[in-house]
Amino acid sequence: MAEVKVRDVEIEVEGVKLPGRLGVPERCKMLVMFAHGSGSSRLSPRNNYVADILRKSRLGTLLFDLLTEEEDADYERRFDIPLISKRFEQASKWVMKNKELKDLRLGYFGASTGSAAAMVAASKFGKRISAIVSRGGRPDLVLEVLDRVVSPTMLIVGGYDLDVLALNRRAYERLGCEKRLEVIEGATHLFEEPGALDKVAELATEWFLSHAK
After folding, report:
1. How far from chain centre, in Å, is Cα 27?
2. How many structural domains comprise the chain?
């Protein structure tokens, strides 16, 4: 399969312009929207690594900033879950109205606090969201919405990321949808160990493809 061209896009939500990077393969099976964690951005090397692998399996990817440069400079804004959740929800609506993208199945990939934003949005869009993957995420930050998430959800956590693993087990119990908890042995929070991020990408690809039918 030829390499997919990734291009810059601008997502306008309530007067704020959020820069993003969009890659849509031919015969795209699903568009996966990435919700990055606090202090990260559309340029996150880990998320882009996963996105590159997803596109090889005809999964489109959209990585975008949830905060403007000015907002991101305010440390507290990075952890403003209601704000980043609202932005992610609004960006999802932008995708759903976009001529090129509106007919594609939609999936969410959340990392760290971005997983909380993805869960909040998924709780509002119901079955419009085909699948969710969380990498080292914090869905526990929004426990109150998890019972309203109906999208098949996979939580991926590093085996050495003990605190986050405990929090994910708690969140997992609250989910009433099809769900799976994958623990990658020997991996820490950032999945920096050899092969760890490849395993994340492999699991995510499998999960999205299995729910793209």
Report:
1. 21
2. 1
